[in-house]
């Protein structure tokens, strides 16, 4: 008898492929919708209109700061404007190019995050991470998170990629080091709220890398290159030093914190717990508590226990990830206590994304146990089913979000037409008075 045996059907491998294919196919469908059909002027308003003005300056290479803040200064740098400039030009300086560019960058960051996770664990775990990332971000923020050009939505996936790179770098995947510096610079320029989490992540990654294993000459050179990249990317914002000084004054001039650490802890738990109950993150101030509070506390507790279990079982990837998660949770707690005025959920949407990495901690612990093949296969299979089910049940919502993003605001279009006709009839600089109902339409 021949000793040849047919290879057994590997359910885990096929389930992993199904997950990746489902996400990739959905992204391709959205991309097709964005590329096809008319490309009208959308007549953006409010902060989106300000974004368009800044994009005009970026095309003239004259934009040196980010979008304006309600606190009287602008976010530090123009990184995202210049990233989107090619797409904006390609689409005839219309809003559709900005939406397409934002979507492509976000898909790129999601793919890069998944690939990075695959470097530190098995592929089935990376596929589960991908499914968790797509499902959780959509539930938390709605389908618009993939298309929205404004912060904080536009910073979500770059920040997730930075967290993935941090864990990989500590485990000596040193080629990520300059890219981490570039990404941290990018998100901080786009949204100044990242300055503390980004600095802490960069420093903790450097410290963790040095403590994990003595660095080789190549790694030292890469850290030097990373420092150079960081400095170079901050040259344009330094030209607007007055803006940076206003930001610095804003963060240092207040004599005390607006929130106690207890209030900040409550807000952090609610912020993390809201998406876990299957609802979109609330707009405005944190709610009193209830189920989101307990779910958030449960997630934080789970991270602590996963980290302890990783330390006990000498699971290096899970332990490193646990340290990164706990350090970021501590940073978020302190940062929330320093927020001026009310803690507005819609301004800090990146914080609850740490829950994705708490789930990854648990998956890394399961992967360590070689006797749990059946459990891993079951989880991978369930992940693929969840991906297919989620896309099937949310496809219409996703499709509506794409259609809405490409729909012209008729009210603003009519207002623009009326104002254009009125100004053409004027022989001198006109004065335009907007009544209250009209002003509300423009906001």
End-to-end CA span = 79 Å
Helix content: 55-70%
Structural class: mainly alpha
Number of domains: 2
Shape: globular
Q: How much β-strand is present in the residues?
A: under 5%
Largest sheet: number of strands, sense, barrel closure:
none
Average pLDDT score: 84
Order of helices and strands: HHHHHHHHHHHHHHHHHH
Q: Using only CA atoms, what is the Rg?
A: 24 Å
Low-confidence stretches are 1-9
Find the count of extended strands (DSSP E, 2+ residues). 0
Number of helical stretches of at least 4 residues? 18
Keywords: Membrane, Transmembrane, Transmembrane helix
Protein name: Putative Membrane protein
Organism: Pseudomonas savastanoi (Pseudomonas syringae pv. savastanoi)
Transmembrane segments: 12-35, 97-118, 125-147, 220-239, 291-311, 318-337, 343-366
Describe the secondary-structure layout:
Blueprint (H helix, E strand, L loop, with lengths): L10 H25 L10 H14 L19 H12 L4 H26 L2 H19 L14 H15 L6 H14 L4 H18 L4 H17 L1 H5 L1 H12 L8 H13 L17 H22 L3 H22 L16 H15 L4 H33 L4 H15 L11 H7 L1
Helix pairs in contact: 1-4, 1-5, 1-16, 2-3, 3-4, 4-5, 4-6, 5-15, 5-16, 6-7, 6-8, 6-14, 7-8, 7-9, 8-14, 12-13, 12-14, 13-14, 13-15, 14-15
